[in-house]
Structures are given as C-alpha cells and as structure tokens.
Amino acid sequence: MFRYIVRRILQMIPTVLGVILITFILFNVVGGSPAAMTLGRHVTPQALEEFDEQRGFNKPLFFGGWTKTRAIEDSDFSKAAGAWKKVPGAEYLKQGFVRMTNGEYAVPLAFSLRPDTKYRLMIEYRTVDGAKGLAPSKPGDGGPQSFAAVLDFPTLGKHPLEFSKDWKKAELIFQSLEKPSPKDLTLKVDGGALEIRSVQLRRKMSNPLDSQLVFFLKQIARFDFGMSSSLNQPVSGLLVKGMGPSLFLMIPVFFLELFLAVGIALVCAFMRNTLVDRFFVVLSVALMSINYLVWIIVGQYVLSFRLGWFPVWGFASWGYLLLPVFIGVISGMGSSVRFYRTIMLDEMYKDYVRTAFAKGVSKSCVLFKHVLKNAMIPIVTNVITAIPFLYTGSLLLESFFGIPGLGYLAVNAVNSSDVDVIRAEVFIGAVLFVIFNLITDLCYAWLDPRVKLE
Known about the structure:
The chain is an alpha+beta fold. It has two domains: about 75-205, Sandwich (Jelly Rolls), CATH 2.60.120.260; about 235-445, MetI-like fold, CATH 1.10.3720. The chain has helices at about 1-30, 35-40, 45-55, 210-220, 235-270, 275-290, 290-305, 320-350, 350-360, 365-375, 375-385, 395-400, 405-415, 420-445; strands spanning about 65-70, 75, 90-95, 95-105, 120-130, 135, 145, 150, 160, 170-175, 185-205. The strands form two sheets. Strands 1, 2, 3, 4, 5, 8, 9, 10 and 11 form a nine-stranded antiparallel beta sheet that branches. It has a two-stranded antiparallel sheet with strand order 6-7. Strand 3 and strand 4 (about 95-105) form a beta hairpin. Helix 5 (about 235-270) packs across helix 8 (about 320-350), helix 7 (about 290-305) packs across helix 8 (about 320-350) and helix 9 runs antiparallel to helix 10 (about 365-375). Mean pLDDT is about 80; it is low at about 130-145.
C-alpha cells in the first residue's frame, strides 16, 4: 500500500500543477485587468500600477524581456488621442494621428518612470514639410546630422528619429534617471511637422523568467495568497478565520444529511413498492423541485420572524446555526435519498441477496450486513468527493444568515472583485479535490477485498 500511495502522489503532481496552471490562466488571462476590476477605471494610472506591482500583474505572463507599464497606455490614435490630447500644441486629427509642429512636446507620462531602469519607446510616425531636427555630432561624423525629431532625456542623451514620408516604426531604448520626473521625456521637432499614429512604452525586465506565473508559484510555495484588496488583510489570515464558521455549519449538515438519506434509502429498499417507499419517493421529488432560496426565505420569515424560534442573523452562539443547518439538510435530502435508494435497490436484485433470503437470513441482516456493505463503493465516492467543498461553506446560507465563513467571504469577494480571495478559494478547493480522490481509492481497497491497489 505504501508504494501505491507514493506512486499515486507522484501521479498527482502533474494534476496539481495542471490545477495551478488552469487557475492562473483563468484569473490572469480570461478575467481582464484585475486592477481595473477592483479599483475601477476612474483611478489614476499610478494607483493601478501600484496594485499590479503588489500582486505581480505588471510582469510578463509566462516569460519575456519587456513588459507593459501604465506610465503610457498603448495609444492607437485611429481610435482616440488619449493622454496626447492634453499635450500643449499637439493637434489630434480625425485621420487617426497626432501632429506636432516646430517646438518641444513633453511625452504625456502618467507618473515618473522607475529609476535606473531601461525602457523601450515604440513610435509609428512620418514626417511632412521637411521636418528637421539636430542630433549631437558623433566622434568622426564631421558635424551635426539632420533628423525629423529628437527624443530627449536630460543627462542621458538624445535619440533621433529619421526622416520618413511613409509611416515608419522606430524603437528608442533609453534608461531613466536616478530621480526621474514625468516631464523629463520630450520630443523636439524642428523645421516642419511630425505625425504620430501609435505609441507604446515597455519596461525592461531584469530577468526574462521573472513572470506572473513564477510570482504565483512562489506565493503558493510559501502559502502566501496575497492581500485582499477589499479588506486590506492577508488572504491566508482571512481563510483561517473563515474556515471555522464554515466547518461549524457544514459538518452537521453533511453528517445529518448522510445518515438520514442512507437510513431512508434502506427503509425504501426494505419496503420497496409499498406505501412507505412511494411516500419517500414523492417526498424526495418534491424536495428536489423546491429551489434552495425558497427554503431560506420561508425559513427566515416563518420560523424566525413570525414564530421567533430561531435567530435570523449572526454567529454569536450555536443557536444561530440551528436554522441554517436545518435548511441545509432539508434542501439536500431529496437528491441524496433518490441517489442512495437507487443504489440500494440495484443491490437488492443481485444474486447474493436472493441466496441470502433463500438461506433464511432476515431482511434486516441482509440490508445492513450485505446490501449496505456492497453499496458502500458508490456511497463513499459520493461522500468523499463532497468533503473538499465543506471548507468553502455554503454561499447562500452564510450570506443570508450572516455567518462569517468562507462562503460569505467568497460572495463579498465576487461583489468587490477581490481577485486574490477568489483565486485562493478556488485553488485550495481544487487541490483538496485531487487529494481526496486518492483517499477515495484507498477506501475502495479497504471496503471491497476485490479491489487491489496496484
């Protein structure tokens, strides 16, 4: 068995890594910008940049030498001028470009660039009317050279743009100052006009492998799930605090529903095709047909508000859990009874049951010693695969009854776009599901001698 466990654990490693990768992709690629979703689109670019910096979202996704920066949003002037419309003297034309004539124009940086960091500015431009600028002479050049414009960064030199009547792309690499200012980067145009159609700014990474995925893996390795943007607390601490109330709620619901459902299923199998069996079948279908919210609303209004039997809201004592536990058990009983009843009846028509009855074994002995034992495989499968989700609690019960568990935390995280909390809960639930699949296999071998661990 030990060898089997070790082998299964080794087989689980690719699965867990796959879960990590899928979780990473879903929250970092599909969802768009977490900073914009959390902080909104009307905050400053610097606030968005700081949010990304804290959570590693300002790095390349998997690997890369350059990454985006919010100092300048990627500008496509065919759609809008963006921040360039505020540059004094720059003219935005409906043809889809910005025109700058003779003069100096500050590149509209939203905030200062990082000190001692390389940047790459990519400009798609063209020149008109013989625009000329002067770049400093190089040793051996014999004097100044003519250029369309010069990108100037004080103390770090000038980067010229060549003449081009057709649209041309230029990449200008420069390094920021020790104490940079948003107004340090300027374009100098001399003798004509410079038209720009698109602008992009990228920041140089010190290590191409320093990516969002590596940042996420490092967090997981040290059990650090980041900071909650809505509560401004470590997510790990929030998970620990919320796990207790969720387990206090879900463990009683889980075991009461299990024992009641299996017991009723055995009664139905024992008294199949009788009035009792048909009553429980009809009751199960009725329970399955009633929406979960109906139980919550009716329970709170009738049992709490009108009759005053239970508290409506809070988690001050065990009495606050009675009504949520009752609703949780009742709402899940229907499907559980139908499932377990089907399993029991399937076993009741097998040869070993008929043989036991032929030998004169009592019905109760057949049910509990033979039928229930042989039906444990699907029961265990259903039970153990449900255990990993006990820690997340119940989204609706905790939200409607004010129980500060992980379900309540998840609902608030969704409402406030708290990506770190949602990602942590999804990831932990997925990993627990993989682990309990291994436990399910071990239980198979323990319950059924025919199952061999190979």
